């Protein structure tokens, strides 16, 4: 009973912070998505830069869009990887919701964006050299996307996220923020209950041993958790980091490999399985190595 009460109280404390963050995100998305997608498709070598900046916006919606755009050959592989790597899903809202973790928000964002740009440009350059031409083809030459075209590219996240635009009269920013807050709260509560139960059951030392705490190899384990195609992975990683059982390097590794439901959409939309596995491999290897580097330096 004490475990349950502690988990509930710890989770409830985050509610007002989460709601404010998601309210800002909902307003931002409803007013800017169309323009952002258009600029992303028109980007050439600046694609990885734009992809990294767009991807760092919380939620996995942009990774879903990136996967769909890539499958339609509207963006290059470097841009897609930049979006995937910089995507943090629910990690940033959760860190913001913990006042003692506010200083880490900027650190996580900067590390992921810089790494995303570096990998995106590197992969795009290699693709250019191997193929002999830029691997970015515009599906059409129109200068603007209609609402129906945006909806088609967005597709379905599959994780309960509904990415609407201001043109949709039925869209309610407040209800979207409330819905997302409740959903994240339930995930956090579940994670806290499980973590508290495991720590109480097996002990902190055994838990630290299982998670390879203080080991340079912990990022490899976190990278596997990050590959779980659901917002639960980012919540698990962030809550473990806040609890002190996961290092910064491991958190970065897990968040770099995690692209939310974007990976599922990629495998569903892009019929080239080898290409999909290549992207998955690059994500895991580069994210894990980057996390190990941070682990070693710290």
Automatic annotation (TrEMBL):
Residue ranges of the TM segments: 12-28, 48-70, 77-96, 102-131, 184-202, 240-267, 279-297
Keyword Protein transport appears in the UniProt entry: no
Native source organism of the sequence: Candidatus Cellulosilyticum pullistercoris
Pfam families: ArsP_2 (PF11449)
The protein's name in its UniProt record: Arsenic efflux protein
Record keywords: Membrane, Transmembrane, Transmembrane helix
Entry keyword Transmembrane: yes
Phylogenetic classification of the source organism: Bacteria, Bacillati, Bacillota, Clostridia, Lachnospirales
